[in-house]
Amino acid sequence: MQAFFDMVASIFEYSFLWRSFVAAIMIGSLCSLLGVFVVLKGLSFAGAGIAHGAFAGVAFAFLIGANPFLMGLVFALAMVLMVGVSSQKGNLNVDASIGILFAVTMALAILFIGMMKQYNTELFSFLFGNILAVTETDLIYMSLIFFGVIAVLLIGFRAFYYWAFDEIMAEASGILMPQVFYLFLSLLAFAIVASLKVVGELLVNAFIIIPAASSYQLTYSFKKMAVYSVLLGAFASVTGLVLSFIYDIPSGASIVIILGLEFLICTIISPKKRWHKAAKPID
């Protein structure tokens, strides 16, 4: 046991681990907060679809020698725009629109990878995640996205809250729901692109969904759900990072496994089981 604590203490001797810890806390908290709205609106498939679009952008960036972070963001925002247009103008529901683009963007990613002349290990760090490889430049991008998204959520909290619970009342109050929908998906796209280096494209949706779904088991209050989700996401991110360093296992997988254990525990101890089985609205 002493050897274990000595290894944990040694973590703080490495500068790259400090960067990883900061990235884990920021990304874990941000994705978990956005996940509250995703879960309440039933947009669980949106995160996976946008992540596929972002990864296609990253693959294209490596193919042409561009910045993978910025190109991933361009593709993710393009995905958001196409989802909105196809669902609102093409008489398709959101899931159908995302499902189509999900397949197309993944096919693009495979095409771009196939066009590369040699195997690129850095590209696959975006697919599976490698938080220990976060650079100072990556951390700057993540910080800008973290504070930017939080600022937008705070400024537009009333609109996002109405959008999550009562769109009819929101429209009656003069809030334009299509614009709020586009804006939220754009914020989600920024958060997903920032998360690719941390947890990877394959697992990023779990980063968004599981903390919010876990916190949903614990409370009917929207505010408490948001706080619990952020705490669960940040805790899993840091714990998973420590375990990945100590036992030399993939960081993204270890974080998501911790998130899964949190969900199991929250489901078991859920106070909702002791209350009425009938649905009670979140306040």
Task: Walk me through this protein's architecture.
This protein is mainly α. It has a single domain (2-271), classed as ABC transporter involved in vitamin B12 uptake, BtuC (Orthogonal Bundle). Helices cover 80% and strands 0% of the residues. It contains 13 helices and no strands. The radius of gyration is 19 Å and the shape is globular. The termini are far apart. The mean pLDDT is 88.
Quick one: how many beta strands?
0
First and last CA, distance: 45 Å
Helix content: over 70%
Second-tier CATH architecture: Orthogonal Bundle
- Written as H for each helix and E for each strand, in order along the chain, the element string is HHHHHHHHHHHHH
Tell me the fraction of residues in β-strands, as a range: under 5%
The residue ranges in which pLDDT falls below 50 over 5 or more consecutive positions are: none
